[in-house]
Amino acid sequence: MSQTILVLGASGQIGSELIEKLRTIYGSTHVVASDIRNGSPSLMNSGPFEIIDATDKEAIFAIVKKYNVTQIYLLAAMLSATGEKFPQKAWDLNMTSLLAVLDLAKDKHINQVFWPSSIAVFGATSPKIHTPQKTIMEPSTVYGISKISGEFWCNYYHEKYGVDVRSLRYPGIISWKTKPGGGTTDYAVDIFFKALEQGSFECFLSEDTCLPMMYMEDAVHATVQIMQVNANQINIRTSYNLSAMNFTPKELASAIHQHLPNFTISYKPDYRQAIADSWPDSIDDTKAREDWGWSPNYTLSKMTKDILENLQAQ
Ligand code: AKB
Question: What are the residues whose beta carbons fall under 8 Å from the beta carbon of 121, sequence distance 6 or more?
Answer without folding.
Answer: 137, 139, 144, 147, 148, 151, 169, 239
